[in-house]
Specification:
alpha+beta; Creatine Amidinohydrolase; 4 helices
């Protein structure tokens, strides 16, 4: 069942989104070669706690970190580790959520570290743009598949692989709520979009194949061809005038 949020609930989600946006902005300035993904995770956690909030992903489905930190061909769900060191030429996906007074936000960013090929830079920028192309259709009266189709139509011109095994979702008091929001067109329209629905829209796009697999740690999802993957996500609320992005400041 898809929930319609009250104005008060949306305000709390707006607060959670602002905190998460601050985290992503500060992490962007913090990341550099030589840091471990564990250090990045702890840095982000401290910012969340400073704002009297908690990390939504901590122990969610028994996930062992505060944020998912995935590198290069890792798509999502990378476990922060003291043994994984950031290097020049890496792209780092930071995906996480903030729980503020019982309400959630969820957002992901892909960061470029140092000298990265133009091909990969384009992938990162186009994945981000795919989010904005998709949410153009996140308006009352449209359907979920309109968002999905908007994302696919933008991405398909570049020949990239759109991850199909993982999708966007509703969000509210739980990180993952109905409905699912694919990043590719489906044969069904999906639910009709209504004012005060809240979604996490998150294109996951691979430089090569769309196919992915889960590594031996039972968490980290990687591309099957070893090519780079990019991820961009925000929490949005549907208004009469279209989507408001809650996790950007």
């Amino acid at each position: 069942m898809v929930s319609i949020k009250s104005d008060r609930e949306i305000e709390l989600m707006r607060d959670a989104g602002k905190i998460l946006a601050l985290v992503h902005n500060e992490v962007a300035d913090y990341i550099k070669p030589g840091l471990t993904t564990y250090e990045i995770d702890r840095f982000a956690e401290k910012i969340v706690k400073k704002h009297n909030a908690t990390c939504s992903f901590y122990h969610l489905y028994d996930f062992p970190g505060n944020f998912c930190i995935s590198i290069n061909d890792e798509v999502i769900h990378g476990i922060p580790s003291k043994n994984v060191v950031i290097k020049d030429g890496d792209i780092i996906k930071i995906d996480g959520g903030v729980n503020y007074k019982g309400y959630q936000s969820d957002a992901a960013r892909t960061h470029i570290v140092g000298s990265v090929s133009q091909e990969v830079r384009d992938l990162v920028e186009r994945t981000k743009q795919a989010f904005f192309e998709g949410i153009k259709f996140a308006v009352p009266g449209n359907h979920i598949n309109d968002i999905s189709t908007g994302i696919e139509m933008y991405i398909e011109q570049f020949g990239y692989g759109i991850v199909e095994d993982y999708v966007g979702h509703g969000i509210g008091t739980k990180v993952h709520e109905d409905p699912e929001i694919p990043n590719f067109a489906t044969t069904t329209k999906g639910i009709k979009i209504k004012k005060n629905m809240t979604f996490a829209v998150e294109p996951m796009v691979n430089l090569g194949t769309y196919e992915v697999f889960t590594a031996d740690d039972n968490w980290t999802v990687k591309t099957c061809d070893g090519k780079a993957s990019s991820h961009y996500e925000n929490t949005i609320v549907i208004t009469d005038n279209g989507p408001e992005i809650l996790s950007l400041i």
